[in-house]
Amino acid sequence: QVQLVESGGGSVQPGGSLRLSCAASGFTFSGASMSWYRQVPGKERELVATITSAGGKTDYADSVKGRFTISRDNANNTVYLQMNALKPDDTAVYYCNALRRTSWGTIVYRYWGQGTQVTVSS
Fold first, then answer.
1. Rounded to an integer, what distance in angstroms lies between the CA atom of residue 24 and that of residue 82?
2. pLDDT in tens, 20-30
3. Inter-residue long-range contacts of 48-57, CB under 8 Å, 24+ positions, other chains counted
């Protein structure tokens, strides 16, 4: 059974930090690229950060570059999102995503976590 379980969300003041974790099980974690998305009510889910399967390459939305860092621990099947200098606009539900594609780009599988709420407010 595939599971992606996020944790680490909560409420923080502007300028503060949070570290999200996503524990994966039920699939070959080291074979999947991992991403964090976020969504606010009434808006589409937004890609925040991505890390390749071996962790050699990362990519970020412009809105979080320089403030957020994605990392992974393939030995413990966990991906992290370190969020610093948080702003009220970062308030959202954050979702963990696992994606594996073939070399031709065909999606083999795509899994989502249940989400964790991050609220940035004074």
1. 17
2. 999 999 999 99
3. 48/81, 48/94, 49/81, 51/79, 53/100, 54/30
